[in-house]
Amino acid sequence: MKEYDLIIIGGGPAGITAGIYAQRQKLKTLLITKEFGGQISRKAVKIENYPGFLAISGQELIEKLVNHLKKYPIEIELDEVTTVEKKEEKFFVRTKSKKEFVSKALIVASGADPRPLEIPGEKEFLGKGVSYCPTCDAPFFKDKVVAVIGGGNAGFETAIFLANYAKKVYILEFSDKVKADKENQERAEKTGKVEIILNARAKEIKGKDFVEGLIFEDRISKKNIELKVEGVLIQIGNIPATSFVKGLVDFSERDEILVNFETLETKVPGLFAAGDCNIGKYRQIIIACGEGAKAALAAYDYLRKIGAL
Ligand SMILES: Cc1cc2nc3c(=O)[nH]c(=O)nc-3n(C[C@H](O)[C@H](O)[C@H](O)COP(=O)(O)OP(=O)(O)OC[C@H]3O[C@@H](n4cnc5c(N)ncnc54)[C@H](O)[C@@H]3O)c2cc1C
User: Fold this and answer.
1) Which end of the chain has fewer surrounding CB within 10 Å, N or C?
2) Is 172 exposed, middle or buried, given 0-12, 13-18 or 19+ CB atoms closer than 10 A?
3) Per-residue pLDDT band at 152 (split at 50, 70, 90)
């Protein structure tokens, strides 16, 4: 079995940056990821808060990050990590395609997956009108009426993007006010196609072969209301993708990995967690990149301290 100084799990902003920093320290590094880009690939409108770029599409930023990473001789494995074990000071990483890799240090940068609504019809109509990814599926909703669940920034950006295609877009927000930035609220209004419904609890997605309607409860009147929609875009936040380190590290009650923010080390020596998979409060690309850099530098210090370099 091939042994590495460092294995990085995740090909989003945190994992890619960790890879660049590890390579600059000449660490023998393997990066394992299901795909490159992570959540940026679900970004519906341009990114306007990554320093150095006034506005850049998610796809373009991913390409730039990956090209930078690939300038270095890092090894890359496109696969899903299923388990991690620590035995005799080494990390054993197993993947879905039954491969096993070993390293002396490990950075988990596996980010987060979309949070499901968990209502009837959601699973049945996934890919048949139900979607978590506006950039992937928006053209499918050309001239249709659609609903976006979630009135935060992601929900509003989804609605703004969908308005380029759809006839009408409802945004359903559970609470009595939307949480999106004022700027996103103004942009949504300008489309002339977005209608916001507050105090709405989504209850069921209906249809035959494809989505035909969405039932929600008006939380004030307690009445069930059916909207005739052909698409439901779910944007209610994320769940950390951390199940493969269960039993190894400590977690918050929301499955975020607990770390020491000075080094991003977990309670397990040599195991670091960077980006949206840890307990950090602010979830942004620049923060994930910063944490990827920090974790790689801390992993280098750790490897030197244990005499592995
Ligand atoms: C719709 C949307 C819009 C956003 N807009 C902005 C914005 O405008 N500006 C901003 O700064 N931030 C924005 N964000 C937040 C930003 O995208 C995240 O904070 C950032 O992507 C986190 O990076 P990460 O590397 O920690 O995780 P992720 O981006 O989630 O990447 C995780 C990576 O790990 C891989 N992975 C997961 N599990 C495994 C496994 N078991 N095995 C192997 N690989 C695995 C995934 O495939 C992925 O490549 C947005 C997020 C969303 C969802």
Assistant:
1) N
2) buried
3) very high
Q: How far apart are CA 125 and CA 299, in angstroms?
A: 43
Cα–Cα separations (whole angstroms), residue 22 to 109, 179, 185, 292, 296: 14, 38, 41, 10, 5
The finding on whether 28 has its CB within 6 A of some atom of ligand 1 is no
* Ligand 1 atom with least separation from CA of 110: 34
Span from the CA of 13 to the centroid of ligand 1 (angstroms)? 7
Give percent of the chain with pLDDT exceeding 70. Answer: 100
Q: What are the residue numbers of the active site?
A: 133, 136-137
Q: Residues 6 or more apart from 265 whose CB is under 8 A from it?
A: 259, 271, 272, 298, 302
| Structural tokens at position 164 | 């380029």
d(CA 2, CA 4): 7
Are residues 5 and 105 in contact, defined by beta-carbon separation less than 8 angstroms? yes
Q: Using the mean position of ligand 1's atoms as its centre, give its distance from the Cα of residue 212 in Å.
A: 31
Please tell me the distance between residue 5's alpha carbon and the centre of ligand 1 in angstroms: 25
Residue 134 pLDDT: 87
Note the pTM of the prediction, 2 decimals.
0.89
When computed from its CA atoms, the radius of gyration of the chain, rounded to whole angstroms, is 21
Q: Is the predicted pLDDT of residue 135 greater than 90, yes or no?
A: no
pLDDT band of 137, cuts 50, 70, 90: confident
155 ligand 1 Cβ < 6 A: no
Ligand 1 atom with the shortest distance to the CA of 32: 43
C-alpha to C-alpha distance for 146 and 214, rounded to whole angstroms: 9
> Ligand 1: which of 9, 36, 40 to mutate, most ligand atoms within 8 Å of CB?
40
